[in-house]
Amino acid sequence: MAQATFHAPRRKRKVYESYESPFPIPLSHDLYMKDFKICQAEIINNFVIVRSTEDIELLYGKGYFGKGILSRSRPGYYIAEQHLTEKWRASKLNLPVISSTKYQRHVEWAKGLLEEQGFDHCSVDKILEDYTRPINLSSEEDNVHENPSNESITDVKPDEIKGAESFDTNETDQMILEGNPEYDPLAKYGSDTQDMKEMCEELDKETLEKMHCHKHDDFIVHCGCKPEKLNLQKDSEAVGITDESHEYVLVQEEDRDAEMEDNDTETSVVGKEKLVCRQNPFKIFEYLQLSREEAFFLVYALGCLTVNYNKEPLTILKLWEVFSAIQPNFQTTYIAYHHFRSKGWVPKAGLKYGTDLLLYRKGPPFYHASYSVIVELVNDKFEGFPLRPLTWKSLAGLNRTTVNVSKELLFCYLIKPPNFTEKDMTSPECVKEIKVQELIASRWVSSRERMEQDEL
User: Fold this and answer.
1) What whole-number distance in Å separates Cα of residue 206 and Cα of residue 204?
2) What average pLDDT does the segment 333-341 reach?
3) At 48, phi and psi to the nearest 5?
């Protein structure tokens, strides 16, 4: 067999972030208890989603696991528009700035959501009119500034709203402003905030029996550990509802009342721009979506992730069963994913290039993908039903596509041992029994072959 030639990966020209070391594997119990953090994920509509901002930064920063649902790769969605932020930078803004077009788009989304909930058109218009009206300022003279471009700006903080009072309550009451009529115009249409707080203040026996202790891998009622204090602030941070940058925004609108005089021409009305503080009627948050292979690797190989379904943590065996039922080729693709991750590659889905996986060195921000991987499951004689049947024509087209994007086509053969049955694939222990053989397919060019022969 000819010796395969491995080419150096092609580095990206512009890199905007520094490289962080991947997840450490704890070698002792003390290290596990001190520095090792277990992230939380949940299955929603057969997809694995991470909501916590801290977990998102940790998972993506240490190994580039998953991708943002609103971003191309790194979860970096922010409601503010960059060019408007730069435009109003001299005014020392403390709230995100968006255009009136984007704000109206959020209003339309909120309108459609309310109509789906059964509200009539008159009620929807009244609700949105109350919610999106400009915020009254406590002191207009102190909050109006002029920037170098002669554009007026209203610089307002959420605690500077007219009529807002200081509450001598706990942090939970201060964090939830949506149920307070002084802050939330929708409070008069119904709010169950107080009932929700009273319900969450105490944990009943049934809830305690279902709470899981990550330190001892057992239920709290069995190990004797005390449950963490349940508060609304922690749960709100997990879903992102306490982000003030999403609650209040500055909308750039045209000031049609402004007039400008020109000595050379007659007096004319010119549309000037101003910022108006409003509440955001439709909040969008960036979540991290993990592939099933990534999620299972974090659970099974690294032990730094817990996947919940209906608020219940799934065991490793149950998670393998669920992912295998959702994705028919999950078992084979995970074994290949586990193999390449263990060798230091960063595998990603290769669907856009017609393959199973793409292999990156260090991570997508630093290098382009080096290999497009096709996974096949065979026996010790390299026989078996192909998971991806390829004809010579389709193979030539796939190879040409791979070469055109500066990658190499790599076949990953998963070799089953003798007497290996389908029942053995129902457990993740099969990862330890299967061997892996890599094969790089390259296109044979006759003219290049003749040139090499002539040189010899």
Assistant:
1) 6
2) 95
3) -95, 120
